[in-house]
Amino acid sequence: MTLKEYLSQPGTFPDHCGIEFSLIEEGHAIAYMKVKEAHINAVGLCHGGALFTLCDQTMAAALNSHQSVALTIQSSITYHQPAHLGEMLKAEAVENFHHHKIPAGEVRVYGEDGRLVCSMTGISYHKREQIECDGLM
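User: That's the sequence. What structure does it adopt?
Assistant: Structure tokens below.
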């Protein structure tokens, strides 16, 4: 099973949240999430927690792409513009600094019209354990 297949299994957290990965390669991941009713907050916009989850899962895919377990130890998100019900969001994560212990990454989430919805930066901690999968794609 590849990392992409592993993260896309039915019943996993990304699946529960409606996140689908289109690309996972070393230090890079792209995921999509359609904004559904369950993602909407009290004012009718996509909840910040849903956007944070999309960013966090996409960055996790990029930073775990070396197949050693990388756990987030710090992240910071900026919400630039709102996302709306029915909109397909694209998240793209890149590993900005590959380090054997403390890698750093960045995620940008775009709306259907190409506007920047939010961005996240973060760092992870690489453990010695390996991810139980065969490869990236």
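The first strand starts at residue 19 and ends at 25.
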